[in-house]
Design a protein that fits this description.
single chain, seven-stranded mixed β-sheet
């Protein structure tokens, strides 16, 4: 990140488009850093060979993959052998849940499963039990719901606390059963930015696992929103699996899965079968160019994370200050402010309240406000929920936000290059939009 990222006089190209629109939806996706695009282009030209081949273009491809694997491992406090390349976060999350089910049946054995049949505390007798939360990304939530629907697993969806916005450790522990095989709790929520107590949860579950090693509970966190914004160290967290998503930290739209000793310390069962790539855990000829880009994006995080985090936190704070200054505290409700709860440095989930801004189930005010904005590019919630129509976010409702407030929500997420000038323009744009909706026409200056 260069000097311009903190300079108030102009925006970098990844923040403002040619029409002067200002992007504040970095939790949905991020543009490629120039160095990442260069790494991808170079790999396409110079390393086009099959990485499994012995001739020069193949050897170059293999070297790039190895170098990228090492950079990604360093980014999340892992060993290179702990990183498995996949197509993206959705595949990584599905792979973890698939593995947990397969491992359950392989490791528990018929005798132990038989004892569970008569155990009323184990829910659906003999089925593997998964614990997750009701505020997870759809690639976890819907996969778990489908396993439940098809009778392949029993699932408990732990509710986020209305007091803290977090999934509380004690609530997760209370849901554990004799047949619990996996706990999957995201590291940071994509809508509120709330950081979940994953490290504390893992410490508590590890104690239980030591008492019953033959039926140890696997631990997974989806790190998509946290990586590249705050420090993420898989070994410090104590997880078995960590989902890594490139397009959330200025990389390409592929991903990786951290597995603590894949196939040895921690089980990993492939969903695909083929040519043996990725040690047979994820076969298929490697996408060398995108892996090169992912590695370069990780390298930039390794070099500049503190700078990125500090800039985003300062910019978000300025955004919140300006929203309150322009609209007044009585018209602004920050949906990600919970007492004692830490959040991502870049995420501001906010509702603008007032006459003419009342939303409803079919036309939430958040959508109305964004439709009137001439400069702001943002969303009302997760991009993966956009096909559900204009309804208040279930995540906000789950966190105790009142429906009449949630329906007005805007998710504003700043990036590495967002400036204070961008913030000023966006807040002015929001003010004009609100004035129009409240029937005041053009706001006085």
């Amino acid at each position: 990140m260069g000097e311009d990222a903190n300079h108030d006089g102009q925006s970098l190209s990844d923040c403002t488009d040619q029409d002067g629109r200002i992007y504040m939806d970095y939790n949905a996706t991020t543009p490629l850093e120039p160095e990442v695009a260069e790494a991808i282009t170079e790999a396409l030209k110079e390393a086009w060979g099959n990485p499994s081949s012995s001739y020069l273009p193949g050897r170059k491809a293999k070297q790039i993959i190895d170098r990228s694997r090492a950079s990604i491992a360093s980014m999340v406090g892992a060993r290179a052998d702990d990183i498995v390349f996949v197509s993206g976060g959705t595949e990584a999350n599905n792979l973890v849940l698939h593995t947990a089910i397969s491992h359950f049946y392989q490791s528990w054995g018929a005798a132990k499963l038989g004892r569970l049949v008569g155990d009323h505390q184990s829910g659906k007798a003999g089925l593997p039990h998964i614990i997750t939360s009701n505020v997870e990304h759809d690639s976890v939530k819907l996969t778990a719901e489908n396993l439940l629907k098809e009778g392949k697993a029993d699932v408990t969806f732990v509710e986020a606390s209305a007091m803290t916005g977090r999934v509380e450790v004690e609530d997760v522990l209370a849901a554990i059963r004799p047949n619990t095989c996996l706990i999957s709790i995201m590291l940071a929520n994509n809508e509120t930015g709330v950081l979940m107590p994953v490290k504390e949860l893992c410490e508590r579950v590890r104690v239980l696992n030591e008492q019953q090693p033959s039926s140890a509970i696997l631990l997974h966190t989806d790190g998509a929103q946290a990586i590249g914004k705050v420090r993420v160290d898989a070994q410090d967290l104590g997880v078995d699996y960590l989902t890594i998503v490139g397009h959330k930290f200025y990389g390409p739209r592929i991903g990786a899965l951290y597995v603590n000793g894949p196939g040895t310390t921690t089980p990993l069962f492939p969903m695909f079968f083929g040519g043996g790539q990725e040690r047979n855990f994820r076969p298929g000829t490697e996408n060398t160019a995108m892996i090169a880009g992912l590695g370069k994006a990780a390298e930039l995080v390794n070099l500049h994370l503190h700078e990125y985090e500090t800039h985003m936190r300062d910019t978000r704070k300025y955004l919140e200050q300006q929203l309150q200054a322009v609209f007044g505290k009585e018209k602004i409700h920050f949906n990600s402010h919970f007492p004692g709860t830490e959040t991502l440095p870049n995420t501001c989930n906010v509702s603008v309240l007032g006459p003419g801004l009342q939303g409803n189930a079919t036309a939430p005010a958040g959508w109305k406000v964004l439709s009137k904005c001439r400069k702001l590019l943002a969303s009302v919630g997760a991009a993966c929920h956009s096909d559900r129509g204009e309804r208040p976010s279930h995540v906000l409702l789950s966190c105790g936000i009142l429906p009449e407030v949630a329906t007005n929500a805007l998710r504003l997420s700043v990036g590495r290059a967002t400036t204070k000038r961008d913030v000023d323009l966006v807040v002015a744009d929001l003010r004009e939009a609100v004035c129009q909706l409240e029937g005041q026409g053009q706001c006085p200056h």
